[in-house]
Amino acid sequence: MSDIAERVKKITVEHLDVDAAKVEPKASFIDDLGADSLDIVELVMAFEEEFDIEIPDDAAETIQTVGDAIAYIEKNNA
Amino acid sequence: MFDLTGKTALVTGATGGIGGAIATALHARGATVAISGTRAEKLEGLEKELGERVHVLPCNLSDLEAVDALPGQAVEAMGSLDILISNAGVTRDQIFMRMKEDEWDDVLRINLTAYHRLAKACLRGMAKKRFGRIIGITSVVGVMGNAGQANYAASKAGMIGMSKSLAQEMATRGITVNCVAPGFIATAMTDALSDQQKEAIYGKIPAGKMGTPEDIASAVVYLASDEAGYVTGQTLHVNGGMVMI
């Protein structure tokens, strides 16, 4: 797993208080990890802080799984 | 009951009668307070009076960039921000038909938009901490209306609507959002009324007198306390029975 994937996983586990084993790339934040809409907003803010990037609202809407988050950050974390 | 030791609070409009009383009451319960307003020398006077656990943060609330920065400055000064009291407000009274656009815009910007900006800038820290108290000082006028104050009444009603919506969004995060709605309170603003005007007002208040800034401050202390953790989206009316909702 890349460094970015590890950090995304760590933030997700901490924030949603879920078992690390469940946080795999295809896991949906809402359907599999029990997040609500406010959790998503908070997660996106946490990713922005961790990786020092801006995630605009329309991009945030496309981030539904852990893998989506990793892919977006890998692409935009120049 | 109502112990605020270890809590940090930002009070805007702390140079006014009600704002000063709120800062004093929160401080007396043990909170560390950041006091904000436009008149720095008045804030420094209050700081001297209160002694320890006080930070002065002058801010002009009509400058929205300065408003955005204010909660961050409070966190810098105090290490955190648990309690936001949005108390600053202005009036530009005018009969509706003669009200100028800038009289409308100024009041909405300073009373309502600044509340929105302040609350927004506080939320991230409060959500992380799973604790927060956001309290807007609105007015009875926001609920009952008042001839000559369409702009002020709209801004105060807007604060109530915003608070209720934000309360619903943040309830699961331990953040409560409430309003306190003063009726007629004895301050510099009401001192300017004539005796005849005052008598007319007393006739409408079952308690037969104006309230004091301390009456408002006590309501704020309650809503800021741990004991009020299950109270959110409410407007606490403190008006001597003038309006009962």
List the helices and strands and how they pair.
The complex is a heterodimer of chains A (78) and B (245).
Chain A: H1 3-16, H2 37-51, H3 57-62, H4 66-76
Helix pairs in contact in A: 1-2, 1-4
Chain B: E1 8-11, H1 17-28, E2 32-35, H2 40-50, E3 54-56, H3 64-78, E4 83-86, H4 101-129, E5 132-137, H5 141-144, H6 150-170, E6 175-182, H7 188-191, H8 195-203, H9 213-224, E7 235-238
Parallel strand pairs in B: 1-2, 1-4, 2-3, 4-5, 5-6, 6-7
Textual characterization of the structure:
The complex is a heterodimer of chains A (78) and B (245). Chain A has helices at 3-16, 37-51, 57-62, 66-76. Chain A is an all-alpha fold and 78 residues long. Chain A starts with a helix and ends with a helix. Chain B is of the alpha/beta class. Chain B is 48% helix and 13% strand. Chain B has a 7-stranded parallel beta sheet with strand order 3-2-1-4-5-6-7, with helices on both faces. In chain B, helix 1 crosses helix 9 (213-224). Chain B starts with 7 loop residues before the first strand and ends in a 7-residue tail after the last strand. Chain A binds chain B through residues 36, 38, 42, 45, and chain B through 124, 127, 169-170, 172-173. Chain B: Residues 7-188 form the Ketoreductase domain. Chain B: Pfam families: adh_short_C2. Chain B: NADP(+) binds at residues 38, 87, 152-156, 185. Chain B: It catalyses: a (3R)-hydroxyacyl-[ACP] + NADP(+) = a 3-oxoacyl-[ACP] + NADPH + H(+).
Query: How can the largest sheet of chain A be summarized?
Result: none
- Biggest sheet strand order of chain B reads 3-2-1-4-5-6-7
Counted by DSSP, the helix tally of chain B is 9
What's the Cα radius of gyration of chain A? 11 Å
pLDDT average of chain A, as an integer?
Answer: 91
The biggest beta sheet of chain B reads: 7 strands, parallel
End-to-end separation of chain A: 18 Å
What's the alpha carbon Rg of chain B, rounded to whole Å? 17 Å
Shape call of chain B = globular
Going by helix content, strand content and strand pairing, the class of chain A is mainly alpha
- Strand tally of chain A: 0
Question: Percent helix among the residues of chain A?
Answer: 55-70%
Give the strand content of chain B.
5-15%
Helix content of chain B: 40-55%
Mean pLDDT of chain B: 95
| Relative strand content of chain A | under 5%
Helical run tally of chain A:
4
Which residue ranges of chain B are poorly predicted, with pLDDT under 50 across at least 5 consecutive positions? none
Number of strands of chain B: 7
Distance between the termini of chain B: 27 Å
